[in-house]
Amino acid sequence: MYPARAIQSFVDFINIMTYDYYGAWDTTHTGASAAVFNPANTERSTSHGISRWLQVVPAQKLVMGLPLYAHTWMLQNPNTNGIGSPAVGIDVVAKFLKKPGTIAVYDERTQSHYCFAGKNWISYTGVRSIRAALRYAKELQLRGYFLCSIGQDEGNNILTTTAFEVWRG
Questions:
Q1: Domain topology for 4-168
Q2: Domain positions in the chain
Q3: What does the pLDDT look like over 66-118, one tens digit per residue?
Q4: CA quadruple 83, 40, 15, 155: dihedral, nearest 10
Q5: CB neighbours (10 Å) of residue 149?
């Protein structure tokens, strides 16, 4: 819906927000907030957004965004806890991954992370999802990437460090 051809002729690069596909505005179902791929809803994925831009803008002008934060939900039923599970609202992130009983999952289909404990469900960016997103960007020969909310990367900057190491090769 943007005049991409006109835009790209006036800029050196375009930052693409390839995240926030799901979040607090989706209170009825969980979702991978930064899925590289999404077989359940292809329009809510990095691959879809990037491929649409590549139809009109050269890859060397595209910069892919990576979030360094999480989106949270309260599950309707703790036993139904995958991507797309029914939810009854959102929850708050507070050192959740370190809590006893938290189960962390890397979903191969969407190449994204989520974790849950009881009724709490969180979609977050992790080392494997950053590696997957950057591999995808490098395969497409995009100009690069940017990090969103770098200040929310936990203490020792694991995700930020991983992003720079992966991009450098």
A1: TIM Barrel (3.20.20)
A2: 4-168
A3: 887 788 888 999 999 999 999 987 766 546 777 889 898 999 999 999 999 99
A4: 10
A5: 12
